[in-house]
Amino acid sequence: MPLSRALAVLCGVLLCASGLFAVSGDFCDSSLCQNGGTCLISQDNDVYCLCPEGFTGLVCSETEKGPCSPNPCYNDGKCQVTENTQRGDIFTQYICQCSLGYSGTHCEISTSSPKATYPGQAIAEVLKKKLSGASFPPVNETIYYNLEGDYLSTTAVPIPVPNPGLSNSLASSCTSTLGMEGGAIANSQISASSVYVGFLGVQRWGPELARLHSSGLVNAWTASDYDSKPWIQVNLLRKMRVSGVITQGASRAGRAEYLKTFKVAYSLDGLKFKFIQNASGSGDKVFWGNMDNNGLKVNMFSPSLEAQYIRLYPVSCYRACTLRFELLGCELNGCSEPLGLKNNSIPDSHMTASSTYKTWNLRAFGWYPHYGRLDMQGKINAWTAQSNSNKEWLQVDLCTQRHVTGIITQGARDFGQVQYVASYKVAHSNDGVEWTIYKEQGTDKVFLGNSDNNSHKKNIFETPIVARYVRVLPVSWHKRITLRLELLGC
Fold first, then answer.
1. Alpha-carbon dihedral sign for residues 346, 352, 353, 356
2. What are phi and psi of 7, to 5 degrees?
3. Distances in Å between the alpha carbon of 9 and those of 6, 18, 31?
4. How many Cβ atoms are within 10 Å of 41's Cβ, its own excluded?
5. pLDDT (tens digit, 9 = 90+) per residue, 95-109?
6. Which of 79, 173, 185, 315 is the S-S candidate for 123 at Cβ 3.0 to 4.6 Å?
7. Which of 100-109, 188-197, 412-421 has the lowest mean pLDDT?
């Protein structure tokens, strides 16, 4: 065996044994790939090189110039690389800063001649209760004032930039959770002005714990007792439409702690923030918070915001400023609603697969395709393929032709063994016979998948798919090809 092949095999064995990397169905001779690329066998038995960071091309021979070269933004839009940031869900590695008169992911929409980008689809009205603009009552607990000194405060009610892709019906339904609870928002995207450290320095109530329904002994963010102007911030990595927030307190040392009132500020660049204003435009709006440590309080923003950064500023707190929360919103085009896998509106018969793994080879313990729904619960709670092969697939029949703008994937656990799809391709069809693999820049797009068994991983398509059938084609995986998913669109 040649030395290069021996090293590739040895490396593969070590990586698999450590559990640090996902494995593909078959490693091919990695000497075929340059600059440390991993050689995989594609679905058609062709050689495919998975390139390390900094390299690209068919055999990883080209130096990566970055996602902004060439400039993917139209109409003189400026491309900004979102480097040194990691997110539980993945969008593109850049954002386009549009010039005046244009909007959209790539500044392709002219706001001077608005027209709907996608057909609207009405969904059930949710989260109806909104807070009034009344000022908060006197309280005896910790109160923080005068936040405006360090940040820009608007003098009028903020009005979002017109977005031709957002119809009235979609605007009213822009209430998807953005990933604090599900894990789509990574820890690195959450920051705070301070952190409370207790119990001899062992307990750290950091901002990454401020996720709705977070559990455990230390399960929320708490600001330092010495922080006079505390805040917690989420960086969404790209401009999104944010329509509301759900807040929750927590219990520390057996005592309830929560935010009684708070303000919300937003920003496009993370430097200049504006506070949401009250109905009259005369001052910052103060939102009512929680009344106990575990109940949920929903606050909707009217109008919704277009922002990349969202900050919550405690105004009054009970015992301490302790918070768990979730943000609500959608993509700017409004076409990013779940298409029916998680809520079972897509029937079981419309989920099919290339094969099904059966524990102990028993039908009663089969990991069938209809289990492949996001957040599916139970001992058997996902689809698992019979073999670890690039020829496996999971298919969804949407019943009718739909606009599909993204996908959320999730792994699972089988008898304590973590399993997931680490990378995949997406194919689509209108008749279930002729299939087209989704491409970007003329080549099949390989999407980055999961890295554990439970977190959500969200991928947005740069060009929406219009199709009835959608297939997920695993490229690499950990232990077994195991998948739960949701499709997004309208």
1. positive
2. -65, -40
3. 5, 14, 11
4. 16
5. 778 877 777 677 777
6. 173
7. 100-109
Is the full-model pTM beyond 0.90?
A: no
Percent of the chain, pLDDT > 90? Answer: 49
Neighbours of 118 (CB within 10 A): 20
- CA nearest to 242, candidates 276, 208, 191: 276
How many CB atoms sit inside 10 A of residue 398's CB?
19
In tens, the pLDDT along 81-139 reads: 764 433 333 344 667 788 777 776 777 777 553 333 332 232 233 344 333 343 333 33
Per the structure block, which two tokens stand in for 469?
């059938």
SS3 3: helix
Q: Rounded distance, CA 390 to CA 65, Å?
A: 29
Burial 80-91 (b: 16+ CB within 10 A, else e): eebeeeebbbbb
From the DSSP assignment, how many helices (H) and strands (E) are in the chain? 2, 33
Give the N- to C-terminal CA distance of the chain in Å, as an integer: 53
How far apart CA 35 and CA 20 sit, in angstroms, is 20
Structure tokens at 167: 């119809």
Strand partners, 325: 211, 247
What's the mean pLDDT in 400-419?
91
String of b and e for 224-236 (b: at least 16 CB within 10 Å)? beebebbbbbbbb
pLDDT of 355 higher than 80: yes
